[in-house]
Amino acid sequence: MNDHPSDKARVTFRITVPKNLTAVATGTLRRTTTKGDRTTYVYGTRGPIPTEVVQVAVGRYKKITATGPGGLPLRSYVPADQADKTRPYVDQIGKQIAWVQKMIGSAYPYETYGVLVPQGDYGAALETATLSTLGLSTPDDVPTMIHELVHQYFGNAVSLKSWDDMWISEGHASYYTLRYQEEKKITPLKESVERTYEYDQENRSETGPPGWLKDPGDVLGSTNAPGLLMLHGLNQQVGEATFQKIEKTFFERFRHKTASTQDYINVANEVSGRDFSAYIKSWIYGAKTPPYPTSAPTPTQTEGHKVRAVGPPSHT
Ligand SMILES: [Zn+2]
Predict the structure, then answer these.
(1) Are 223 and 230 in contact (CB under 8 A)?
(2) Taking the CB of residue 278, how many other CB atoms lie within 10 A of it?
(3) Distance from Cα 229 to the centre of ligand 1, integer Å
(4) pLDDT at position 122
(5) Which residues, 6 or more positions from 150, have their beta carbon under 8 angstroms from its beta carbon?
(6) How many angstroms separate the alpha carbon of residue 154 from the centre of ligand 1?
(7) Cα(126) to centroid of ligand 1, in Å?
(8) What are the protein's UniProt keywords (predicted)?
(9) Which stretches does DSSP call E strand in 11-80?
(10) Helices then strands (H, E): number in the chain?
(11) Measured in angstroms, how far is the CA atom of residue 151 from the centroid of ligand 1?
C-alpha cells in the first residue's frame, strides 16, 4: 500500500485475536474461524478502495446491523459499553444515505456502509472506506456523519489523481454537510457560507490555495473551505438542476477511478455548456480569495434554439 489517494486495490484482511475480542475492518466480514482461544476474522472489499483509507480495529465492540436504501447491508461497530448511547445516531445512517443519494442522484458506491466508533479517545473523524471512523456522543456529531458519508462518494469512490486535488474530496464533503444543515434547519446555508468565506479570506495567504498548499500537512484542513465555496458559487451560477447534473456526471464518470481538478472543470463545462475554467481555477489555484460566490446573471445568448456557450461569468 502506497498511502496515496490514487492507489486503489481490492483489500482482504485476516486478523487473529483472542476470542474475547472482536476484530473489525473495512469491507464485509467473509468468515470467522476459532481455534483454541483465538479467532480469525476475514474481511474483504468487493471493489477497489483507496488504500490510504483502510481501517482495522480490535477491541470489545458490539456490531449493529440494519438495512439501508435499496437493501444495502449496514453494519456499525460501537464500544460494547456505549451501545445504548450511540444507537440513536447509528439508527440514522440509512436515512442519511438516502439523503446523500437524493442530492447526488446516484446510488451509494460500495457494498456496505456503517461507522466504527473507536474505544477510547480517538479525537478525529476519518472517511475510512465503507466504515467511517468517528466519535458519536452528541447531536454535533451528526454533521460529521454526513461529511464522512459524502467522502465515500468523493474522496473514496472517486479518489484523487494527486494530493493537489484534495479539494474534490474535502470540498464536496463539506459542501453537502452545509446543505444538510440547511435542510434540517441546523444552520442556514447563507450563514455557513459567509463564515467560510471570511475564513478563506483570513487564511489563504498563509496556507496557499488548496491546489498549491504551502504545507502538505494542511491537506485535510485547508482544502475544505475553498472547495465548498467554489461548489456553492457554481451552484449559484448554473442553478440546482444543472449543478446536480454536473455532480452526478462527474461522480459516475470517475466512480472507482481517480479524478483531477481538470477532470472536474471538463465535466462542469461540458454539462453546463459554459466555460467555468477560469472561475474554478481562481478558487483552487488563486493566491487571493476570489469574489464572494453569488448568483451572477446567466450570460447566455439564445440564437434560435441554440444556447451559445460564453466565457466565465463575471462576479460582483
Ligand atoms: Zn473530510
Answers:
(1) no
(2) 13
(3) 15
(4) 82
(5) 100, 172, 173, 176, 177
(6) 10
(7) 7
(8) Aminopeptidase, Hydrolase, Protease
(9) 12-18, 22-25, 28-35, 38-44, 49-50, 56-59, 61-67, 73-79
(10) 9, 15
(11) 7
Nearest-angstrom CA–CA distance, 247 and 253: 10
CA of 172 to the centre of ligand 1 (A): 9
Judge contact between 40 and 20, C-beta under 8 A.
Answer: no
Q: Does residue 297 contact residue 316 with C-beta atoms inside 8 Å?
A: no
**236, three cell numbers:** 449559484
Note the Cα 173 to chain centre separation in Å.
4
pLDDT confidence of residue 305: 41
C-alpha cell at 151: 467522502
Q: Which residue has the cell 465555496?
A: 229
* Domains present along the chain, CATH in parentheses: 8-153 (3.30.2010.30), 162-308 (1.10.390.10)
The mean pLDDT values, 10 residues at a time, for the chain of 316 residues are: 81 96 97 97 95 94 98 98 96 98 98 96 91 95 97 97 96 98 96 96 95 88 94 97 98 97 98 98 97 68 38 36
What separation in Å is there between the alpha carbon of 170 and the centre of ligand 1?
5
Specify whether the CB–CB gap between 180 and 279 falls below 8 A: no
Amino acid (1-letter code) at residue 117: V
Give the model's pLDDT for residue 296: 61
Q: How far apart are CA 56 and CA 47, in angstroms?
A: 18
Distance 177 CA to ligand 1 centre (A): 10
Q: Please tell me the distance from the alpha carbon of residue 145 to that of residue 90, in angstroms, as a whole number.
A: 9
C-alpha cell of 110? 460500495
pLDDT for res 1: 62
pLDDT at 304: 38
Q: What nine digits make up the cell of 160?
A: 484523487
